[in-house]
Design brief:
24% of the residues lie in helices and 44% in strands. The protein has one helix at 28-44; strands at 2-9, 12-17, 20-25, 49-54, 60-64. By secondary structure, the protein is an alpha+beta fold. The chain has a 5-stranded mixed sheet with strand order 3-2-1-4-5, covered by helices on one side.
Length: 71
């Protein structure tokens, strides 16, 4: 499963995918929106994907995942 992880790095929000940062955004909302778009694109290619965010206390939160009915 592809995972897009949204993390804050000082004043910006970064997306980590496959161990590397792939995008930087000024707000958490825009970062999550972009990550969800990428996850939808992965689903269109037949790859399951999800979007997670890391809180300041380092816990992970699921921001988006496909419906259980999606193969």
């Amino acid at each position: 499963m592809d995972q897009y992880l949204v993390e804050r790095d000082r004043a910006v929000w970064k997306i980590r995918y496959d161990g590397s940062y792939v995008a930087i955004f000024p707000t958490k909302e825009t970062a999550i929106g972009w990550a969800i778009e990428q996850a939808h694109n992965a689903l269109a290619r037949g790859v399951r994907a999800c979007v997670l965010s890391r809180a300041d206390d380092q816990t992970l939160r699921t921001e988006w995942e496909p419906d259980a009915t999606v193969p």
